[in-house]
Amino acid sequence: MVRVTLLGCGGTQPLPQRALSALAVSAGGSTVLIDCGEGTQAACRRWGVNLFRIDAVLLTHYHGDHIFGLPGLWQTMAGMGRTAPLLMAGPPGLEALVRAFLTVAGPLPFALRTLELERCRGQFEVSPAVLEAFPLKHRVDCCGYAYRLPRAGRFDPARARAANIPLAYWSRLQAGETVGRFTPDMVLGPRRRGLKVVYGADTRPCRALAEAARDADLLCMDATYADDADADKAKLYGHSTCRQAGALAAGAGARRLWLTHYSAAVTDPTPGLLAARAAFPAAVAGEDGMSVDLFFDET
Ligand SMILES: [Zn+2]
Ligand SMILES: [Zn+2]
Fold first, then answer.
1. pLDDT, tens digit, 9 for 90 and up, residues 268-277
2. Which residue among 1, 140, 190, 245 is least enclosed by CB atoms within 10 Å?
3. CATH number of the domain that 211 lies in?
């Protein structure tokens, strides 16, 4: 199961009812935090995301509304006695940013492991998930992220019996472990569809995001502007309108769409939601604290 919690759906500046960008994605007791706008640690507490369980912070880009929560989050983690290393990933410039933030938040009792994603490309593991970065279209280098929870093939007891594999090994093989000379592929069928959550902000609609979002269980996408009349402004500033987000999700065959990163000028998201639903009827207007549990398909 993957739990996704939208910690903040605002862009540019925090509002009383709308915190800045951050999304928590959790599976198997491990949480990946995508972006860390000002106030993210408070949003985590408010919406039930355990700060101890955060194993990685992935930054999309270095505009303030996506990163100003970071030094405070580190300090709180330190105060809670964290010693486990924290993975930090982001576009080039990450190491300089971490150094700069450490001058106000450091030294820390835990290690920061930085992963600079050259050209916003790269694949890495935050067990049990596999993360993939891809380049978005913003005014600065900006990474989108696909979070995947893989699913092993179906266990075949007949093959296990035929290969004379002791019963005591079955569950370990089923969990993907090699036991002695027995390997999982001896007893597992082809891999089944896993789960995929895609985060695409800040960005104009672009092909890399459409490809990443193909068949995604959930796409959480930049929907800065609710009014179609702002399409030129969206293009100029490297953002999307709600309608564009709906069109991209529909084209990609995503199963769910959450609109996020609303401009502070969007006081009522309803017109934008209706515009997004023109192409993608299941679109949902982002709201702080919104959460969904995603499960593997029945088959
Ligand atoms: Zn932003
Ligand atoms: Zn930005």
1. 999 999 999 9
2. 190
3. 3.60.15.10
